[in-house]
Design a protein that fits this description.
It is built from 21 helices and no strands. It has about 475 residues and is mainly α. The protein has two domains: about 230 residues, no CATH class; about 220 residues, no CATH class. The longest helix has about 30 residues. The chain is globular, with a radius of gyration of 22 Å. The chain starts with a helix and ends in a 5-residue tail after the last helix.
């Protein structure tokens, strides 16, 4: 009953903003994009590599989504505004907060399945008529892709729950894992290794009832353990914090809001671990898989680094989503605050955090590749320009509500169609990288940065809290 009401409330909330038809169209937009992926990629890459990459892609998505251990209480409390008051109903109604949280998690799992997984798998079903992917393989994806997503989500939930209790343990595990993979990259990119590292992928290539039971038990067990370990208490007790910044001699509203957002993120449950689990780790997983897939095309180390810089630049904009997700702009309506300054502060902090974390990830990518030090500098320029255009498009289309408005079919389609030509352009350049097109690429970052600045200035003229 509780799950049903949460599903209805989620649907009501989005359909009220976008309309029932427009909200449903979001899944059709996802289906269209996935259909292009399913139809085009088998023409260039073996079906086995595509299917494996697809599973790791949803594993990375699960890792990104499942950081409940760092944001669980905040999601219940802040993410959905007034409807999240149900999180506190355990204080007055005969329902436990763990039961409420479990239903929240199941609700999110069902929505991601409906809006992303089903359209993705359906696209492969249709593409099987004209590609080398068989109808049997495409049908099996309806079982293994959801299991892969749930496994990634459960594993992330467990890791972030442990991280919230003891950061040093997870930091050591992640650090040692990165070093180990780096030292043994050739081993991890072998087919027999990466096919057996992911349990749902084992089930896909060797479907048996025993493996199906093992996968369901493993994912459910990880989620159950995480739920038992997670602290759901909402105790109203005082907590002291050290002063992070001194009083500024030159007060500025934008600077004040930037510092506020930084402090909020730092003091929130999990702190900067959210960026680690929702951005850095998933991208590392995708990069390792792409390193293997692109070996088929004999892509140079320089070309591979350019491709990674584009991927990092596009995904780094999710930091803006994090900053906007837990800070409802409507609370500033009764204050003499210009919404433009709020947006400027969040954008500025996103740029700082995005460049710092993205640069670190780009250096790790450089160590994994066989690129020259010169190409690292050039890739950094591409990364910053792609990050700038992605962030400016996001701000222009969604304003202070990126996590909500991106579920609008029209907005999401505009977002994807705007960025798609840029991504495709750099992908083609990466696949055919040479010293000649190295010179041809030089104007691209300049053009993108110029467009980004112009688009951001235009977005400042139209932004309001009521968007």
């Amino acid at each position: 009953m509780l799950l049903k009401e949460l599903l209805r409330e989620e649907w009501r909330m989005h359909s009220t903003m976008f309309g029932n038809t427009n909200f449903i169209l979001f899944s059709l937009v996802i289906f269209g994009l996935c259909a292009l992926f399913a139809l085009i990629t088998p023409l260039f890459i073996s079906s086995k590599s595509i299917l494996s990459f697809s599973h790791y892609l949803f594993f990375a998505l699960g890792i990104s989504i499942g950081s409940f251990g760092l944001s669980g209480r905040e999601v219940l409390n802040k993410r959905f505004g007034e409807i999240s008051f149900i999180a506190y109903s355990s204080k007055i109604l005969p329902v436990s907060v763990k039961q409420i949280f479990l239903n929240f998690a199941l609700k999110d799992l069902m929505y991601y399945t409906f809006f992303f997984i089903i359209p993705f798998c359906t696209a492969f079903i249709i593409s099987s008529a004209i590609t080398t992917i068989t109808i049997t393989q495409a049908s099996l994806m309806f079982i293994t892709i959801p299991l892969t997503f749930f496994f990634g989500l459960s594993l992330s939930f467990l890791m972030t729950t442990i991280y919230s209790r003891s950061k040093i343990i997870i930091q050591l595990i992640i650090g040692c894992s990165i070093v180990y993979v780096f030292l043994n990259l050739g081993f991890f990119t072998q087919e027999i290794v990466y096919e057996n590292m992911l349990p749902p992928l084992q089930l896909f290539f060797n479907p048996t009832m025993k493996m199906l039971i093992v996968n369901i038990t493993l994912s459910a067990g990880l989620f159950l353990i995480s739920t038992l370990l997670f602290n759901f208490e909402f105790k109203a007790k005082g907590k002291g914090h050290k002063t992070l910044f001194r009083a500024s001699k030159k007060p500025s509203a934008i600077k004040a809001f930037m510092l506020k957002d930084f402090i909020d993120l730092h003091r929130s449950q999990g702190g900067f671990g959210k960026i680690l689990f929702s951005f850095l780790i998933p991208i590392l997983i995708i990069e390792v898989m792409m390193s293997f897939v692109l070996k088929i095309f004999s892509v140079s180390g320089e070309g591979l680094l350019i491709l990674f810089s584009v991927i990092i630049g596009v995904t780094a904009s999710t930091i803006y989503n994090w900053l906007a997700e837990f800070d409802n702009a409507k609370k500033y309506l009764n204050l003499p605050i210009n919404p433009k300054k709020i947006c400027l502060s969040k954008t500025g902090l996103s740029i700082i955090l995005g460049i710092i974390s993205g640069s670190g990830l780009l250096i790790i990518s450089f160590l994994f590749s066989e690129a020259s030090i010169t190409s690292l500098g050039f890739s950094f320029i591409i990364f910053t320009s792609v990050f700038a255009i992605t962030l400016s498009v996001l701000v222009y289309l969604t304003g202070l509500n990126p996590n909500t408005l991106l579920f609008d079919a029209k907005t999401f389609l505009k977002y994807m169609l705007t960025l798609a030509p840029i991504i495709v352009f750099f992908m083609l350049q990466a696949f055919s990288y040479s010293k000649i097109n190295h010179l041809f690429l030089i104007p691209a970052p300049i053009i993108l940065t110029t467009i980004s600045i112009a688009l951001f200035k235009k977005s400042m003229k139209k932004i309001t809290i009521f968007e």
